[in-house]
Specification:
By secondary structure, the chain is mostly beta strands. The protein contains three helices and 20 strands. A hairpin with a 2-residue loop joins strand 14 and strand 15.
Length: about 375
């Protein structure tokens, strides 16, 4: 009740501020879809879910011009479960982003809870826009955001742009740089070509049972051929483990880990490294219609038979600049000891788990609507 009251008051204040100040914007989206998932176990589920493409959200952002090429900027953003009206994370008021920064001629500096580099460059990974529903890379898991994050993004020079982050653990007895989440990105964009690297790594706690770092390395390359784009992507990571939902159902380095941005180092799954290969392309039939296809493979390099492969077909129809209708057909085949399952920008609330995904083949059909404001 306290969180709901605070949220209501904050949203009311945000609305008043957005109307009073022309440089403050209230924004968001609502993304709802009807989904069907069937397992080779014989079990199926149908449900209304949130966030196939974009998690429903409500945000507030602002810019103050300081002159001389300098700006102060901020973003506060809360994820929503639009199918229930609840918060995506009931323990936080702004779970997706909460940062303030300065944009200068030398680049942009930010501090606070921010989107990760691998998440931010999602539109360069495949045709689903931000490695969302049907993306094999998204099914594996994309590290999305961290607390206490310091970042710098350079201006784009000769087509190149540098992005670096460091998220502190704020653990007593540890100095700056002892642990935390480090990120590095280098993006190149010129003409029809785009390519780059987005990486993340983090150390375990001191005296951990396993000293290996959690890492996430992503290489990507795109080619715009006029009517659409061709996407190639490669990921190498050990940031996947098991829980009650399946053999590969959660991350070792959580986006909301406590204490912040740290992991204990007692999970043997950190020794299991995956190589993920993905290709996709889209084609614009008309100014409103766009179709796409995707195929990807996850290889478990530890030879535990815990990989998977899958594909996706999708169609988008733009009713307007703000409203899109979409549909997907998806397929996934888990290896004998794997338990991956479909995921969008938000995990489907109507989903399968356990014996219905471990070592099973999955098919899915989704149809929904996305409205941005």
């Amino acid at each position: 009740m306290k969180i709901n009251f605070v949220a209501a008051c904050s949203l009311a204040a945000c609305s008043a501020l957005a109307q009073a100040e022309p440089n403050v914007t209230l924004y968001g989206d609502v993304d709802q879809y009807l989904g069907y998932i069937h397992s080779s176990s014989g079990t199926s589920v149908i449900g209304l879910n949130d966030g196939a493409i974009l998690r429903s959200r409500l945000g507030l952002r602002g810019v103050e011009e300081l002159g001389g090429g300098y700006q102060t900027k901020f973003t506060l953003e809360q994820g929503l479960n639009a199918n229930t009206g609840g918060a995506a994370d009931s323990s936080r008021l702004f779970d997706r982003q909460a940062w303030v920064g300065m944009n200068t001629p030398a680049g942009e500096f930010r501090i606070g809870r921010q989107n990760s580099i691998p998440f931010f460059i999602g539109g360069a990974i495949d045709y689903t826009e931000r490695t969302t529903y049907g993306s094999v890379i998204n099914t594996f898991g994309v590290p999305s955001r961290y607390d206490n994050d310091l970042s710098y993004k350079s201006p784009r020079l000769a087509g190149f742009q540098l992005d670096v982050h460091y998220a502190l653990t704020e653990t007593a007895g540890e100095g700056v740089g002892a642990r935390g989440v480090y990120q590095l990105g280098l993006d190149y964009s010129k003409g029809p070509y785009r390519a780059g690297y987005a990486g993340l790594w983090a150390k375990p706690a001191a005296k951990a049972l396993y000293s290996e770092r959690v890492v996430y390395h992503n290489l990507y390359a795109d080619y715009d051929y006029g009517k659409g784009k061709l996407y190639l992507a490669y990921v190498r990571s050990n940031n996947v483990t098991a829980n009650a939902s399946g053999n590969n159902a959660t991350a070792i380095l959580s986006n909301v880990s406590i204490p912040g941005n740290a992991f204990a180092g007692n999970n043997p799954d950190v020794l299991r490294m995956y190589n993920i290969y993905q290709i996709s392309a889209d084609y614009r039939l008309t100014p409103q219609w766009r179709i796409g296809a995707l195929y990807g493979v996850m290889k478990d390099t530890s030879h535990r038979d815990s990989g998977a492969q899958g594909g996706n077909l999708g169609a988008y129809y733009d009713l307007s600049k703000r409203t899109t209708l979409y549909s997907f057909a998806n397929y996934m085949k888990n290896d004998a000891n794997a338990g991956f399952r479909f995921s969008g920008s938000a995990g489907p609330t109507a989903n399968l788990a356990g014996a219905d995904i471990n070592g099973k083949r999955l098919v899915g059909l989704q149809a929904g609507i996305l409205h941005r404001f």
